[in-house]
Amino acid sequence: MRLWTASKFLLSKISYNCMNSICHAFKILYTLELCTHLCVIVEDGKVIASGRNRTNETQNATRHAEMEVIDTFLEQWREHRLSKSEVAEKFSKCKLYVTCEPCIMCAVALSFIGIKEVFYGCANDKFGGCGSVLSLHSTPKGEGFKCTGGIMATEAVSLFRSFYEQGNPNASKPHRPLAQQATQ
Amino acid sequence: MRLWTASKFLLSKISYNCMNSICHAFKILYTLELCTHLCVIVEDGKVIASGRNRTNETQNATRHAEMEVIDTFLEQWREHRLSKSEVAEKFSKCKLYVTCEPCIMCAVALSFIGIKEVFYGCANDKFGGCGSVLSLHSTPKGEGFKCTGGIMATEAVSLFRSFYEQGNPNASKPHRPLAQQATQ
Predict the structure, then answer these.
(1) Among A164, B44, B99, B180, which residue's Cβ finds the most Cβ atoms within 10 Å?
(2) Do the chains contact at B84 and A172, CB–CB below 8 Å?
(3) Cα–Cα distance between A52 and A132 in angstroms, integer?
């Protein structure tokens, strides 16, 4: 069910041809690793990198899904020995799809790397950097990236709510008990 | 000369007892690696981690000195198998010293990890997140971190100017010719 919801979220904006690769990426990220903060980078209609929030796992509060996918992406390109200008050109053609609006930190990071466009599900009312708290994705001079939010926002909110209601087994000190424990 | 300027910048705000360790950190970072965007994390008056801007080296525009030092710091703690709460407690006692005002992305990142206090040299008029463009280091509720800027700002500006006038040999496509090449 979760995989389906996550996939539907993405499929609303990318072509039908992407379905298989997106389902594959989300199957790994979402079903197996129990994480809702997910993103993928798409180039020419194909998912080429994926990331998930790893703040608990790494004990590093900056390791949001977007920062993870940027590093994964660049690691791939380093292996192909692309030059700096080739990397910049790559980023300028890529789109990022993420379940929740990038926070202020991630919005600036995505702007620094020169991503072409970002699509997100639900708004991030506390830290959102693409319109909710601040609008750091673009400047009056037209710099930055295009951003479209609210894609299947209801489903995205439901997905996060469901996740947090169950409790996060990866957190070192869960704020809420896991569903299974709570019913014991 | 550069080492001396960089050391003086830090020494204006931290105790004399720190001098040796700071000089050591900056000798490696600054003199040998030819980089002006530097920072150190200090715990109980002792430098415990250092970072430098690695955006050109990694071809990753998000690898600012502050992001580097956070990762270095956490790597050390992971080796010591500290828990998440122990890591959070560590950060809440640490101070960060950096040559230039943290950008918006780094200001939020430092806030996320819960650093106690930040000191910086010159302002970052284009991207500064601690007062110059936005003030993201603290909230009206008192969350975030204390921040003091303008420490030996003239020297810090001079240090950056000198660096960029010479050209950056680490950049893949230098915007300015290196001093040596320019005089040939």
Answers:
(1) B99
(2) yes
(3) 21
